[in-house]
Design goal:
This protein is an alpha+beta fold. The protein has two domains: 203 residues, no CATH class; 175 residues, no CATH class. 50% of the residues lie in helices and 16% in strands. The protein is built from eleven helices and twelve strands. The strands form two sheets. It has a six-stranded mixed β-barrel. Helix 2 runs antiparallel to helix 7 and helix 2 packs across helix 9.
Length: 460
């Protein structure tokens, strides 16, 4: 028999018992819809989490530390940390790794910035100005640092709101930490136009005596809101090196003049030239590989991609569980297809006998029943997929409406995608429904092949 003949007979047999075929189709479409919607929710959660993390942090940046702790093997409970100096030589090594876009060493210090009667304690980060754009620093006002800047600083978005009047604080007896939050009030200091002075004090427990002279600084920019840099002030790393050298020179002078003074810098730990080095990777898919290469050099390395990988593992487990829950419905549908095929055999015993008497191949009988089962799976899968897209749109609409009611700022953002059905999932759902149908029709088709032609004709 030709395949077109088998297909025609299969369609004719399916529509001969319309109610039974429709009921079987309903089982398949429910199963297909269940597994597709369940998996789409898992994919949506994964995508939402991915977008959230990428919006909050730069997933392509690796943070390199001077101390590296190798993995603890099963025979030892303690490993000694490996130390590598983070210096300009290390920066050049990282630049030579294929796939690295930019490298920036960092220095840190804590300082007080004053403007008139207002002041703010801030964390100063020294950074290479020429790579700020590569590391996605974006300004809300002003500009980024340039290589020629001397004493120029760029403020994190919340820092201008940290300025306060110490006398007001003393009178109130309170404790103040300013933050932008949802406030529409202007900060007390115009950091881009007001005169600013920076005081660097590294001597803990010593008021006034340890404080250096003030450095005149000029605010040139305010960064866009980003929790990674909202609470830092950025300046050229070369200028910060200069300030630190002056501090160390003054510190040595104080140590020589006072035996009671103990430098907070003196400890048993080795120190690097830089606190850390940031490595920007071109492709997020190369982060893990480059991170391992850095570790092989003896440096400690970590990135938000580590957290991303762990989250993806958890999301995969969630998707598998949701898919398994939906798969139960498709399993029930498979039982329905099997039952339909067995019923069809008993109703078409004479037809099967005639086909055998006419000399048709047994394989043609098997193909006929497998095609019928596959068609049930295909039609149920197609209808179920269309229903799945409709349910997915409804879920996303309800989620967007609910989140918009909880947080009005969400209304200004793109619609929330709790359920996502990519093309591969749609094709997989339809293909899986067809596969389940064929598997469900396999044993009934074998039963049809074993029917005796003479017994079938005599029975009828």
């Amino acid at each position: 028999m030709k395949i077109i003949d088998i297909l025609g007979m299969s369609l004719k047999n399916l529509f001969r018992r319309k109610i039974r075929t429709i009921l079987t189709l309903i089982g398949v479409l429910i199963g297909t819809t269940s597994i597709t919607v369940m998996m789409s929710i898992g994919i949506g959660l994964d995508k939402t989490n991915e977008d959230f993390m990428q919006g909050m942090v730069d997933m392509n940046v690796i943070t390199v530390e001077s101390y590296y702790f190798p993995d603890i093997d099963s025979g030892s409970g303690f490993v000694e940390a490996e130390f590598q100096n983070l210096n300009d030589e290390a920066v050049q090594k990282f630049y030579q790794i294929e796939g690295v876009e930019a490298v920036s060493p960092e220095l840190n210090m804590y300082a007080t910035i004053k403007s008139g009667r207002y002041e703010a304690g801030v964390s100063i980060v020294g950074i290479d100005p020429k790579v700020m754009e590569a590391f996605n620093y974006k300004v809300e006002k002003g500009r980024l640092l340039s290589e020629d800047d001397q004493g120029a600083i760029v403020f994190g978005n919340s820092i201008p709101y940290h300025f306060y009047n110490p006398r007001d604080l003393e009178r109130s007896g309170g404790f103040y930490i300013g933050d932008r939050g949802m406030s529409d009030e202007e900060p007390p200091v115009d950091v881009l136009n007001d005169k600013l002075s920076m005081f660097y004090n590294t001597y803990y427990g010593m008021e006034g005596e340890g404080r250096q002279r003030g450095y005149n600084v000029q605010g040139v920019g305010i960064l866009k809101q980003n929790w990674q840099n909202d609470y830092n002030v950025y300046m050229s790393i070369e200028y910060l090196k200069k300030i630190k050298k002056e501090d160390e020179r003054k510190q040595r002078q104080m140590e020589q003049s006072s035996e009671m003074f103990i430098s907070p810098r003196r400890n048993s730990m080795q120190e690097s030239e830089y606190e850390r080095i940031l490595v920007k990777v071109k492709d997020i898919n190369d982060v893990d590989e480059i991170q391992e290469k850095i570790k092989e050099m003896g440096f400690g390395a970590h990135s938000y991609a580590d957290m991303r990988n762990e989250t993806k593992k958890q999301m995969f487990i969630i998707q598998a569980i949701l898919g398994a829950i939906g798969g139960i419905s498709l399993l029930v549908a498979a039982i329905g297809i099997t039952n339909t095929m067995y019923m069809s055999i008993y109703e078409r015993t004479k037809e099967i006998g005639v086909i055998k008497v006419l000399g048709c191949f047994l394989g043609d009988i098997r193909k006929m029943f497998l095609v019928e089962a596959g068609l049930i799976g295909l039609l149920g899968g197609l209808i179920g997929m269309a229903l799945s897209y409709g349910i997915s749109i409804g879920i996303n609409y309800i989620a967007s409406t609910f989140m918009g009611a909880q947080d009005p700022m969400m209304m200004e953002q793109a619609s929330v995608s709790v359920s996502i059905i990519p093309l591969w999932l749609a094709l997989f759902g339809i293909a899986f429904a067809v596969f389940v149908g064929i598997i469900a029709g396999y044993f009934p088709s074998r039963r049809a092949m074993k029917i005796s032609a003479l017994e079938a004709i005599r029975t009828e």
